[in-house]
């Protein structure tokens, strides 16, 4: 019987294993809301009885699911499809294709309902091509009363400011505050004074960096706080020159071995993962940038045989690369052509990114050794911590059989980089660099605060599937400095209460 059911499933589903599916999240936002299904009132299709009841636990979810790609497939069958658009003329793109491409580039299309409405109105206009009048293919879709009603409701909603994924990384706030205030200027002057002294006071620098580092001085500050540069100002140039030469010595000595039998699997995995790194940001899709990442990751992997390369390490290069690139770029970093920089500058950015990433990984390497014991321990610690600070969430997970490892593994493995926009990750790392054990210890409390942040949404979910979808796709696309600052403040409060109080921490 199960075999017959599976055969029928594949017959009625065009999608197969390995087919491309949309992935949503902070760095993979949903496409235009116009492209998502909208049901008119009282016309939502009745689903198969097997799907009418959501699985309330992991056991029921597993028993009622034929395949990982089975989500919403039956809805796709019953959903009344819009008429196919007329065949496009040669040299022209259909409006829907143009909208998809534009929305994917910006990554924040759903943040401006009013603008979307205006764009759709423009699509309904007649277009003149070679003397002929052609009506946009989106007219049929827009003429439905349900869509028009939805757009009218959206028009009344408040408009949030657009926040680029990377642009003006340290100065963007979700509130739309101006990039530089009097307070910001005062802080910048304080940083410059500290960095100008013959021997920089690193403790004082950490104290000022905890609440965020101004964009203008972030590159030099990160080099100092990571331990890559010495506090003595006179020695910095010599150290930079020596370390950069040392890195490119590794390139000459080892990089040619990437095709050797012993290393080819490592290089192949790196080569596969690089294009997946921040796929919506044009900067990381440039061949020059991808080659830089390949060299950095391969050299690190063969110099650390205890762990080698592990998926997720590729994400950890990006904040360093963007920060050190911003030292030479005045416009938006996300669209900058790295090949336009002088070759020596490109090489310096690459070497500095390698050494700073290496310093970071030295403190959390047990996250990436065999069986990843560091992550296992941190996930267990997160579970114990949440059971003490919010018993309702902990009991809710128990009730619906949600394991912390199912969502928190990625939080630890990627340091929340898949959950937050890149600009927020960089702000978060300002504080991690300022903390004595920011990446290895303080990150646990940030994850706990991040989980509690979504308390209301978590408790409103009453099925395993809904909980897991929420925890793996938290809506942080609009987050900026203010939200990260509040998250860090809550994490600090939790650390203050529990880090030095073992009896509070354990059951």
Q: Would you mind describing this structure in some detail?
A:
The protein has 507 residues and is an all-alpha fold. The chain has 25 helices and 2 strands. It has a two-stranded antiparallel ribbon with strand order 1-2. Strand 1 (126-129) and strand 2 form a beta hairpin. The radius of gyration is 25 Å and the shape is globular. The model is unreliable at 12-26, 28-52, 66-148 and 153-177 (pLDDT under 50).
Describe the SSE topology.
Elements: H1 2-12, H2 49-52, H3 58-63, H4 73-78, H5 95-106, H6 113-123, E1 126-129, E2 132-135, H7 139-142, H8 145-155, H9 182-196, H10 202-209, H11 218-225, H12 236-254, H13 264-273, H14 287-303, H15 313-326, H16 343-363, H17 373-389, H18 391-399, H19 405-413, H20 422-434, H21 438-453, H22 455-460, H23 464-472, H24 481-498, H25 502-505
Antiparallel strand pairs: 1-2
Helix pairs in contact: 10-20, 12-16, 13-14, 14-16, 15-16, 15-20, 17-18, 17-19, 17-21, 20-21, 20-24, 21-24
């Amino acid at each position: 019987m199960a075999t017959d059911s599976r055969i029928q499933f594949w017959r009625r589903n065009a999608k197969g294993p390995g087919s491309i599916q949309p992935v949503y999240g902070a760095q993979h936002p949903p496409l235009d809301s116009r492209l998502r299904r909208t049901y008119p009132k009282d016309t939502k299709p009745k689903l198969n009885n097997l799907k009418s009841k959501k699985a309330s636990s992991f056991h029921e979810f597993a028993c009622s699911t034929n395949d990982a790609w089975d989500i919403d497939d039956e809805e796709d069958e019953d959903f009344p499809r819009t008429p196919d658009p007329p065949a496009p003329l040669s040299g022209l793109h259909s409006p829907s294709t143009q909208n998809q491409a534009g929305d994917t580039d910006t990554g924040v299309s759903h943040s401006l309902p009013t603008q979307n409405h205006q764009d759709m109105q423009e699509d309904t206009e007649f277009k003149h091509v070679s003397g002929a009048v052609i009506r946009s293919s989106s007219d049929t879709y827009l003429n439905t009363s349900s869509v028009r009603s939805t757009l009218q409701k959206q028009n009344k909603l408040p408009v949030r400011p657009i926040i680029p994924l990377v642009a003006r990384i340290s100065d963007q706030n979700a509130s739309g505050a101006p990039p530089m205030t009097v307070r910001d200027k005062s802080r910048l002057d304080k940083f410059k004074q500290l960095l100008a002294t013959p021997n920089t006071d690193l403790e004082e620098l950490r104290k000022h960096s905890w609440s965020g580092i101004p964009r203008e001085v972030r590159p030099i500050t990160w080099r100092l706080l990571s331990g890559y540069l010495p506090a003595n100002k006179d020695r910095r140039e010599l150290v930079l020159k020596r370390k950069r030469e040392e890195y490119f010595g590794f390139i000459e000595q080892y990089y040619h071995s990437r095709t050797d039998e012993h290393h080819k699997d490592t290089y192949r995995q790196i080569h596969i993962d690089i294009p997946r790194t921040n796929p919506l940001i044009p900067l990381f899709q440039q061949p020059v940038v991808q080659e830089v990442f390949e060299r950095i990751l391969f050299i690190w992997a063969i110099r650390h045989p205890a762990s080698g390369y592990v998926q997720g390490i590729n994400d950890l290069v990006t904040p360093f690369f963007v920060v050190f690139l911003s030292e030479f770029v005045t416009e938006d970093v996300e669209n900058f052509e790295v090949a336009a920089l002088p070759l020596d500058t490109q090489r310096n950015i690459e070497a500095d990114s390698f050494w700073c990433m290496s310093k970071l990984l030295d403190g959390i390497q047990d996250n990436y050794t065999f069986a990843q014991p560091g992550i296992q321990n941190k996930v267990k610690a997160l579970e114990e911590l949440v059971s003490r600070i919010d018993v309702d969430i902990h009991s809710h997970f128990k009730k619906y059989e949600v394991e912390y490892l199912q969502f928190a593994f990625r939080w630890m493995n990627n340091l929340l980089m898949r959950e937050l926009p890149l600009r927020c990750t960089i702000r978060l790392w300002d504080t991690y660099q300022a903390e004595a054990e920011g990446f290895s210890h303080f990150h646990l409390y940030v994850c706990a605060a991040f989980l509690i942040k979504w308390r209301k949404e978590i408790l409103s979910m009453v099925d395993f599937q809904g909980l897991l979808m929420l925890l793996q796709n938290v809506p942080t696309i609009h987050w900026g400095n203010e939200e990260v600052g509040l998250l860090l403040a809550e994490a600090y409060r939790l650390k203050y209460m529990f880090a030095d109080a073992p009896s509070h921490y354990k059951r």
